[in-house]
Amino acid sequence: MANKGPSWTHRRRLIYATYALGVAMIAFAMATYRSDTSVASQLIVGAVSLISIILTAYTAFATIDDRYHFTPEDDEDGF
Question: How many domains does the chain fold into?
């Protein structure tokens, strides 16, 4: 079975880089929370939002992509 759909390699790199950025934002906010609480709390809110958005978009678009690129003859079990 050959892969007929588009390559997700570049998209996965972008997803992982954005996820790493969100984790770095949270880590920096945790380190500076005592000195500047308002900036740290906004960093945490932004990072959690960023991670939530990319996770939702990745799973949603992967599902849509599978739906439109999957054909019944690709199924090896016949179901």
Answer: 1
